[in-house]
Design a protein that fits this description.
With 114 residues, the protein is an all-alpha fold. The chain has 4 helices and no strands.
Length: 114
């Protein structure tokens, strides 16, 4: 029995003690200041997300408008190019347009041949 009593004494001396609270648990929590800081961060993040979405939407609208303006400019350029080509073709069909002297040229038999 003597060995049993010695084993219990040794086991009692080697056991780890349970930690005792040395700090007040109410003072360890973040409290109102921590809550206010986290709430402020959350509100700022929400406003940043809203602003980012607004800017992305605006950029999309601007890109759409720029595409429309480019398409209109290309269409106008194509119409002007066809108008110029049509005018060149009309000028080529008129023989008087080729004559720089106009109606008084000797080729027409006008007054210059007297």
């Amino acid at each position: 029995m003597h060995t049993l009593a010695t084993g219990q004494i040794l086991a009692a001396g080697l056991a780890t003690p349970s930690p005792s609270m040395t700090v007040d648990p109410d003072s360890v929590t973040p409290g109102f200041v921590g809550f206010a800081a986290m709430a402020l961060i959350a509100v700022v993040v929400v406003f940043l997300i809203i602003d980012m979405l607004r800017r992305i939407r605006r950029a999309g609208y601007r890109a759409d408008i720029n595409e429309q303006l480019d398409a209109e400019a290309q269409a106008e350029a194509a119409v002007e190019a066809t108008d110029v080509d049509d005018q060149d073709l009309d000028a080529d069909d008129d023989p008087a347009a080729d004559d720089p002297a106009g109606d008084d040229s000797p080729r027409d038999g006008g007054p210059a041949q007297r």
